[in-house]
Amino acid sequence: xxxxxxxxxxxxxxxxxxxxxxxxxxxxxxxxxxxxxxxxxxxxxxxxxxxxxxxxxxxxxxxxxxxxxxxxxxxxxxxxxxxxxxxxxxxxxxxxxxxxxxxxxxxxxxxxxxxxxxxxxxxxxxxxxxxxxxxxxxxxxxxxxxxxxxx
Length: 151
Known about the structure:
This protein has a single domain (7-142), classed as Aspartate Aminotransferase, domain 1, CATH 3.90.1150. A six-stranded mixed β-sheet has the order 5-4-3-2-1-6, with helices on one face. Helices cover 30% and strands 23% of the residues. The chain is α+β, with helices and mostly antiparallel strands. The chain is built from four helices and six strands. A hairpin with a 2-residue loop joins strand 3 (66-71) and strand 4 (74-79).
C-alpha cells in the first residue's frame, strides 16, 4: 500500500482481498460495530491468515472493547474482557485469560439481545471509558509480516 492511501482506503483494500462471502460479512459486521461503538478507533492488523479489527477508545490494542477476526474458518467477534463478562447463555467460547469469542455467521447476530448484553457488560468493564463525542479513526497498524515485506 502506498503512503498516500488513507487508512480507510487501506482497510477497504484489505477487505477486498477476502473471499466474496467473507468480505460481505466483514463489511456488514464493521458497519454494525461502527454504529454500536461510533467514538472508538478501529485498529487494523493484517496477518497472513486473518484480518483483525479492534475497537478501542485509545490507540492501544490492550484497551480494545471488542475486535473481530476474519479467518479462513469464519468470522469471530472477540470480547476483550470475555472471562469477566456475565454470560448466562454460555455464548462465549475459548479459554483465553483475556478474551473470549463468539462465531458470527451473519451481522444480525450482533443485534441479538444476549450479544447486546455482552456489549453492555464489555463497555462497563472496559479499561478506558468510551469518548462521549466524536468519531473514531481508522489506524492501520504494521504487523511483523508487513514490516518484513517492507509494506
